[in-house]
Design a protein that fits this description.
Helix content is 58%, strand content 8%. 40% of the residues are buried.
Amino acid sequence: NLPPTLQKEETALLRMNTALMIQLLLGACALQYHYSHAAEKVDNNETISTSINEEHSTNYERGGLRWCNLGVSVTFCPLTTAAMLDKYSNAATTTIDSIDDDITKNNDYCLEDSSWLLHPTSGYVPRGSLCGIIGPSGAGKTTFLNSLGGATVNGGLHVTGTIYYDDGEQQQSQRLSQQNGDIAYLSQHDNFFAMLTPRETLELAAKLQNQNTEIDGNKELVEKKLSSLGLLHVADRRIGDRTKLDGGGGGGGGFGLRKATKRAGGGAASGLSGGERRRLSVALELMTEPKIFLADEPTTGLDSSQAGKVVNLISKLAKDRNIPSICTLHQPKSSIWKMLDEFILLAPGGKMCYAGNRNDATAYFKEIGYECPHDTNPAEWFIDLVTIDTDDLEQGTKDIDRINFLHHRFLESCTSLHAGDEQACLDKQQLATNSKDAGTDNRKMFSISRTLQRFGALFQRSLRQNIRNTRVLMLRLGAAVLQAKLFASIFKSVRHDKSLTKSIADRVALLTYGCINLSIMALMKTLDLFAKERGVVLREQMRSSYSSLEYLLAKVFAEMPLDASFALIFASVLKKLTGLRSSMGTLMKTYCLMTISSVSLGFAIGSIASTAETAMALGVPVLVILMVVGVINPSGVNTDETPNRVMEWIKLFSPIKWAIEALVTAEFRGMTFEKDRDFWGNLKELPRMGGLAMVRDGDEVLDALGLGNANYNEIMINLTKLTGTFLIFSWLGLAFGGPKFQQT
């Protein structure tokens, strides 16, 4: 029973204590929530790192393709991933002395970004998975893929590091080679013989790549590939040439086109579609049992539907065959992105910013401060993340700093994941090298039966490619007949009934134009065909499917008789329509040999040219020079002038020169002219004919032309030797002048 005043004070004090207790309780709850939330975040980050490490450990046990310190530079720079990490870790104070690498200390340019097309990194793609390489243009996607597949050409780039295949057991590690069929490489552009069918193309590939397999086994393999890749319905349709405006030539050209269209259900005329050609390319790469499958932008030129089917096909073969499949992709859509198991993100300059499981990527980038929006295609967002703005200098600088940060963080994770791998790489490399040296590629073993088998397959392919192109054949046939008629109508003084003095110049010109005409047609046709075959031949050379000599001999026996037949037709029509004194056999023999020599010249030029454009650009001026030095002046030769030695040497390599001399010698040797004018008439012809106006017989004509001592048989022997010389040059060019690839 306290007084009212004290009761009021006690009540107020109680209320204050109650409020204070409530505040303390609320503060404690908030503090507990804060610490529990922070702990949960740390646990999540540790879970992400742990999951990535566990994923890497699991993948390593699965086996697959592994690369250590792989880099591509314009100069020899054998830097390691750790050395590149030191560069970014000490960006402000990095000097060449701070990097523990004796070679690098003497080459400080190795630290410059401009020295690298692909910065050194280490990584891994497990078996049975599809890995996509994405990045903006100029990021080095194809460079990286070429270095993995041993397709980097010697001459300007240097590949450093180690690449090997591991099936999970150290004893089974090995270096891979396209020559042994270990690597399937799908190039960006499809290259085929347009006049062959898919079945014939695969049968030829089976003969060349599976030479130890019986014929029935190869046919069964071909049918299996056609069926599994959905090509049975077009197996007997000609592939066609997709570069033609009319869609191909798969039907063989304009002649017989309707029959071909009707026979193939209306589709033969246009050849295969883009998707069908892509699947055929995949089938070609799978004729052996590769351990890895590489594809350079397999969706190029395809619509979104076909692109998805091709990527799904590659993903399926990776899982069915349990091999790692790696492909470069340009701006993949969401459905294609979801097909990937792994992916590699490359920034401009070949800076790798991520390599790992696709499902872990968004969490990894969120952890380092870059979160992908939920309503965005991750592939597009990742590409934008490593793209440099070249229009805005300030923004471009920020982009470069961001890329360097991402690359630095990836190198850190790469170093932690692959800690201790450098010595393991050396051990694996030595083991792989020993296993490679211990093996023998049976395809390279010399065997007469295998040589004949390869030659027969190549001969059959070249023959089909030539004789099935009816449009070109009919055009060449028509050109041979029409040009012979045209020349006969122009040079009317070369008559059947008389050999007149005024016909001397016309006879020389007629024979000369015939040689030039056939030489141009043979050379340009050979260069064009050589250029079209180059992509296929390069792919087969990388696999060592056959020798250069086998390929050359197959083309010689398949193409030269066909080219010579048009020379026979031209010579026979020309002989029938003109009064040439030379026999039909002489004309045919000379024009045929000259045509064969021009074809061999085309082989020689094509064998040393690096591209189709180079071959055509080189062939035209060479032909013009050989034509100019080979033509005989119908007005005679001035024997008082000293000939230029350089020009005399060039003349020795002109098929036109030897052919004209042989024909003129055969035409005028022993010829007698009918007197169609008197002495004063000859004087009147002096301004037009020169010294030839006063000659009395064919021998004097040869003396005036500088061929007084010429012998037809000797000239033909020299032309034959020249043809052989061109063929030897062709073989040397194919054997030693082709691209050489770096193996790591």
